[in-house]
Write a structure and sequence with these properties.
The complex is a heterodimer of chains A (121) and B (106). With 121 residues, chain A is an all-beta fold. Chain A has no helices and eleven strands. By secondary structure, chain B is mainly beta. Classes of the chains: A mainly beta (121), B mainly beta (106).
Chain lengths: 121, 106
């Protein structure tokens, strides 16, 4: 069974930084693209970023491009999201999720339990 | 950006009823359309991928159809555990989600 466990969320001031981690188990990690999807309180789902299984391809939503960086360590079965220049509107639960394929545009299954990021002064 | 519009925003129904949820794309996504279910306090769960293929472990009462710009998710007979929010997602060109349809108990 594939399991995804996010960590690293918390309270940060506007302009600050935070790094999220997602540890995966039960899969050949390098065979799958990994994505981050967020959900603001009471709102819908917003795709944030994806990295291909090899790490050679990275993609970002316009809303985070230039501020967030996705990375992965296939030796540790972990994907990261470095979030800089955080804004109040980045406040959300951030989900880590596995893509069906190693690259390209995916559907997502499974999802982690999410980690809450709150940006507030 | 491909915009997905789900309708209705909210549906109030009773267990045992049949329900059809709609997802319309602003341009063709072929059959690259996905459906998820999300219950309060939980992560989304994959239901249907590529418009009509049920994910592993999803009951047969859930079915998806459509291609191009118009898609539907049908639940043939609502169970109490089906009351949740449903999202569609396209993977034809980047990734976008619909705004969700809330299915509530009448």
């Amino acid at each position: 069974e594939v399991q995804l466990l996010e960590s690293g969320g918390g309270l940060v001031q506007p302009g600050g930084s935070l790094r999220l981690s997602c540890a995966a188990s039960g899969l050949t990690f390098s065979s799958y693209a990994m994505s981050w999807v967020r959900q603001a309180p009471g709102k819908g789902l917003e795709w944030v970023s994806e990295m291909s299984g090899s790490g050679g391809g990275t993609y970002y939503a316009d809303s985070v491009k230039g501020r967030f960086t996705i990375s992965r360590d296939n030796s540790k079965n972990t994907v990261y999201l470095q979030m800089n220049s955080l804004r109040v509107e980045d406040t959300a639960v951030y989900y880590c999720t596995k893509g069906r394929y190693s690259s390209g545009w995916n559907w997502f299954d499974p999802w982690g339990q999410g980690t809450l990021v709150t940006v507030s002064s | 950006e491909i915009v997905l519009t789900q309708s209705p925003a909210t549906l109030s129904l009773s267990p045992g009823e049949r329900v059809t949820l709609s997802c319309r794309a602003s341009q063709s996504v072929n059959t690259y359309l996905v459906w998820y279910q999300q219950k309060p306090g939980q992560a989304p769960r994959l239901l249907i991928y590529d418009a009509s293929k049920r994910a592993t472990g999803i009951p047969a009462r859930f079915s998806g159809s459509g291609s191009g710009t118009d898609f539907t998710l049908t639940i043939s007979s609502l169970e109490p555990e089906d009351f949740a929010v449903y999202y569609c997602q396209q993977r034809s060109n980047w990734i976008t989600f619909g705004q969700g349809t809330r299915l509530e108990i009448k």
